[in-house]
Design goal:
It contains two helices and nine strands. It is mainly β.
Length: 154
């Protein structure tokens, strides 16, 4: 079991408490993460991601995708009455599950698609205009202004 002391991070930073809490959560859950169902996380563009989860045996009605408090929660429960069957081998689990993915700030779910036994969830990072970098004009002592380096000509 790993023990990580994050107190230096708390002492020397302001506003990173969510990040430190996330690290705490990752290290405390490291051993107990369930592996069912299998999933992939891929980066599809600079600010776009896709989570693909293998959900064989589940219909659209059995699946639930929800975003709550910066967490993506994917769950599945069999809703239909399953008739009595005798299996010689049962390799497809079809058991209920709940998967949680912690989302970074400004990451939004843009859609979900269920096809061929896979649930694809598309995500995009949408940074608000107020948080994007901007150039500041620099004024001189005589009152004239000049454009900051690297800014576009007006």
């Amino acid at each position: 079991m790993r023990t990580v002391d994050l107190s230096p991070l708390y002492r020397s930073t302001v506003g990173f408490d969510q990040f430190a809490d996330l690290l705490d959560r990752v290290f405390s859950n490291e051993i107990s993460q369930p592996s069912y169902p299998p999933f992939n996380i891929e980066k599809t563009a600079d600010d776009a991601y896709r989570i693909s989860i293998a959900v064989a045996g589940f219909s659209d009605e059995d699946l639930n995708v929800e975003v709550r408090e910066n967490a993506l929660i994917v769950s599945a429960r069999k809703t239909g009455e399953e008739q009595e069957r005798t299996y010689l081998h049962r390799g497809i689990a079809e058991r209920g599950f709940e998967k949680r993915f912690q989302l970074a700030d400004h990451v939004k779910v843009t859609g979900a698609l269920h096809e061929n036994g896979m649930l694809h969830i598309d995500l995009a990072r949408e940074i608000p205009e107020a948080l994007k970098p901007r150039q500041i004009e620099i004024a001189s002592a005589n009152g004239s202004k000049r454009k900051a380096l690297g800014s576009a000509a007006a």
